[in-house]
Amino acid sequence: MSVDDELKQSLDDFRRDFQRLRAEVSKVIVGQLEILDDMLISLIAGGHVLLEGVPGLGKTLTVRTLADALHLKFHRIQFTPDLMPADLIGTQVIGESDDGRRVFEFQRGPIFANVLLADEINRATPKTQSALLEAMQEHSVTVAGVTHRLSEPFFVMATQNPLEMEGTYPLPEAQLDRFFCKLMVKYPTVTDLEMILDRTTESANPRATAVMTGERVLEMSKLARQIPIAADVRRYGIALVVATHPEHELSVPVTKKYVRFGASPRGLQALILGAKIRAILDNRYHVAREDLRTMAAPVLRHRLILNFEGQAEGILADDVVEKIIATLPETALATA
Known about the structure:
By secondary structure, this protein is α/β, with parallel strands linked by helices. The protein has helices spanning 5-26, 33-45, 59-68, 85-89, 126-138, 173-176, 190-201, 214-224, 231-242, 253-258, 265-281, 289-300, 308-312, 317-327, and strands spanning 49-52, 70-71, 74-78, 90-96, 102-108, 115-119, 140-143, 146-149, 155-160, 181-184, 212-213, 259-261, 305-306. It folds into two domains: 5-220, P-loop containing nucleotide triphosphate hydrolases (Rossmann fold, 3-Layer(aba) Sandwich); 228-327, Orthogonal Bundle (Helicase, Ruva Protein, domain 3).
């Protein structure tokens, strides 16, 4: 596949900047390279990320470090049961004009940032969680009938703790679907633990410095969309998504047995965009099926709704995705 020299140079710059940003974050965050790559892919694709893991694994630190490595405005919101939508998006307050008249003024909330950390998002009530919906999808908020645009890029990274579920409010499917990826933060290895101790107990804690601007992130996002994808590869991506629907003819036995609802078209969009960025990072100028398979679990796991049997038997969404990849032929839908 021929690619002009200018595009090749642009893609080389893309990889260089991506690696520079990853290296800067890695000065603070030990290990978790797969998680970090998927976070950066989501950022460049213009999506949002949901991080899930037990306490103490550095979820909040990872988000804060990424914000430090970007020339972007960062806000953190600690979600609690008493947090109200106005605490998130802002509210109208009474002020005084120059001529002494009382007027309503909009006081912006912490959602007006480029990088927003929604810490322990499942501890807030559904009413407050829903306040994020318009912002995540439309990049704007509406207060008193007036729409206020958010600065670009706008990137939400939410964390949730799978333990201590009492008193929490699981995210509704509509909001889960607005996250580009759901990433599972794993416990560090012994080698990683040793390095964590070296950095935090025997010397001053390292801190990331800003190495990229928001304008560059937007440029990389536009560039990623230019990566071509062959018709048969794109149809394979479509097949991966429709195979998550138990009523579809391409669904595999595990889907029919354990899945109630499959992934949405938004999941397919995320799958293709993520695969395009993966292709660039792998020094290729077109999307391969392997790129789709690599992105399948992060972008689909939170979009699958298991039925009662699946929940009762402890089936994970990742198990379903893995089985679909192993079962679905690479030529699925290729000749449709």
